[in-house]
Amino acid sequence: MADNNSINDRQETGRTLPAVEILKDISDKRSAVKAVIFDFDGTISTLRQGWEEIMEPLMVEMIAGEEVPNQKLVDEVREYIDESTGIQTIFQMQWLEKEVRRRGLNPRVHDAWWYKDEYNRRLLEMVKVRVEKLEQGIKAPEDFMIAGAEAFIECLCSKGLDLYIASGTDHQDVVREAAALGLSKYFTQIQGAPERRADCSKEAVIRLLMETKGLSGKELLVIGDGKVEIALGLEVGAVTLGVAADEIRRRGLDPVKRNRLIKAGAHMIIQDFSGSEEVLNLLF
Question: Which CATH architecture is the domain 4-46+145-283 placed in?
Answer without folding.
Answer: 3-Layer(aba) Sandwich (3.40)
